[in-house]
Write a structure and sequence with these properties.
Layout lengths: L4 E6 L9 H13 L4 E7 L4 H13 L3 E5 L8 H10 L7 H6 L2 H13 L4 E4 L4 H9 L8 E5 L3 H11 L3 H24 L2 E4 L2 H11 L4 E3 L21 E5 L5 H19 L6 E6 L4 H9 L3 E5 L5 H6 L2 E4 L9 H8 L4 E4 L15 E3 L4 H11 L2 H17 L2 H16 L8
Parallel strand pairs: 1-2, 1-4, 2-3, 4-5, 5-6, 6-7, 8-9, 8-11, 9-10, 11-12, 12-13
Helix pairs in contact: 1-16, 5-6, 7-8, 8-9, 10-14, 13-15
Protein name: Glycosyltransferase family 4 protein
Keywords: Transferase
Pfam family, one: Glyco_trans_1_4
Length: 418
């Protein structure tokens, strides 16, 4: 297949690699840039130093960038709540309306006029709206793909199930209905919709009318994440990793600190929890500081030392979708994993062979105690999971799959719907 011109629409330049989404996006694009002309069009990174480092990393990877001088609005402060209230009047979900800027749509429109784009790639579902705003009636003749890191409606459905405040639950249900309408359009209208798991792909077909849905799973750099056999693990130390500015991770971290850790320490007093992640909110910092046996490390440059020292990774998620890169990274290093069923969703791993899985968040206490008491059997589980990860989840293999999605999209007929 000839070298394609690929235009990627995204929130910001995904670098440094401090979140699962950034890790996935950068690793796949960097591996495909030698084969195709890849250009990323996005908003600027809010942090200036981060923005400069990101631009350098993308230049080194051979990826062109078009960055508009607008940052996505913050999810905190009075302005955030004013925007949430204003979104009541919009037919679009909040995440879609705040990410669809006129500046980025205009940049995409200008790029389309100047370049012969073979495939537009929306690197998160809300950016399908940016493409719709940019191309207008021309969208039907374009070849474009949409990357669903999560089926967003599934996450909002789980928010609604766990929200305790009636007003918050009412607002969440409105967002859920908006996302259901939006995803029904995006997955059906795209030339190809890309899911990260077979479960998400089935949902996109059955509930959202996805006509052509392909799976490109999450992966791990197996050369970077390797076992450190010379480092001694800390008994009864559980590690939580994740972007702490993402609400499902915040909910999971709160569950760990307020319920799981205290219950475990009641039976194993020396048990500890280490939380590692970017951009933790102040309330989470305070909660970790006030919780006996807990410590929080924000915005660390390298998570591997934490993976090497802990006894196991804990994934107490009860809200979420897609699949968890943190589990793949842990297993690649030979670190055992204890997860809820939701946390392990979307990964082709077998419970009790490759990792320990609790059916409910409440069951995480018993699963955690079982892991602490498992001894060498726990490490045997991690080794089984590591072999599975090496065979299935390398970025090189997954880049081949995304390459096939793009090259196949070029050959597909245009969509005639609206």
């Amino acid at each position: 297949m000839r070298r394609l011109n690929i235009a990627v629409l995204d929130e910001e330049l995904p670098f440094p690699l401090t979140s699962g989404k950034r890790i996935r996006t950068f690793n796949l694009l960097a591996r495909l840039a030698p084969r195709h002309n890849v250009t990323v069009l996005c908003h600027r990174n809010p942090d200036r130093d981060e923005a400069l480092a990101a631009e350098e990393a993308f230049r080194d990877a051979g990826i062109e960038t078009v960055v508009v001088d607008r940052a996505v609005p913050s999810k905190s402060g009075p302005g955030f709540y004013a925007r949430l209230a204003g979104n009541l009047l919009s037919p679009l979900p909040y995440s879609v309306s705040t990410h669809t800027s006129p500046a980025l749509a205009e940049a995409a429109r200008a790029f389309d006029a100047e370049r012969d784009v073979d495939v537009w790639h929306c690197e998160w579902t809300p950016y399908a709206q940016v493409l719709r705003a940019a191309l207008g009636p021309k969208l039907g003749a374009a070849r474009w793909t949409v990357m669903a890191h999560n089926v967003e409606s599934l996450i909002w459905r789980r928010y609604a199930e766990t929200a305790e405040n009636p007003m918050k639950r009412w607002y969440i249900r409105r967002q859920l209905r908006k996302f259901e309408r939006f995803e029904r359009w995006a997955y059906a209208a795209a030339t190809t919709a890309v899911a990260v798991s077979r479960e998400d792909a089935a949902l996109m077909r059955a509930e959202f009318g996805g006509r052509r849905v392909r799976v490109v799973e999450n992966g791990v750099d197996v050369a970077y994440f390797r076992p450190q056999r010379d480092v001694e693990r800390t008994p009864a130390q559980m590690l939580f990793m994740g972007s702490l500015d993402w609400r499902p991770n915040q909910d999971a971290a709160a569950q760990l600190l307020t319920h799981i850790l205290p219950a475990v320490r009641a039976e194993v007093p020396h048990a500890t929890a280490v939380l590692v992640g970017r951009r933790p909110p102040e309330w989470l910092r305070a909660l970790a500081a006030d919780t006996p046996g807990a410590e929080l490390h924000a915005d660390v440059p390298d998570v591997r030392p934490f993976l090497a020292r802990c006894e196991f990774l804990t994934v107490p998620l009860r809200i979420g979708g897609g699949s968890r890169l943190k589990i793949l990274e842990a297993l690649a290093t030979g670190t055992p994993v204890v997860s809820t069923r939701v946390g392990a969703e979307g990964l082709e791993l077998e419970p009790n062979r490759d990792l320990l899985v609790a059916e409910t968040p409440e069951g995480m206490v018993n699963a955690t105690l079982a892991a602490i008491r498992a001894g060498d059997q726990l490490q045997d589980t991690a080794e089984s999971g590591r072999q599975r990860v090496l065979a299935r989840y390398s970025w090189e293999l997954l880049a081949e799959r995304l390459d096939d999605v793009w090259t196949s999209a070029v050959r597909q007929p245009a969509y005639v719907g609206s």
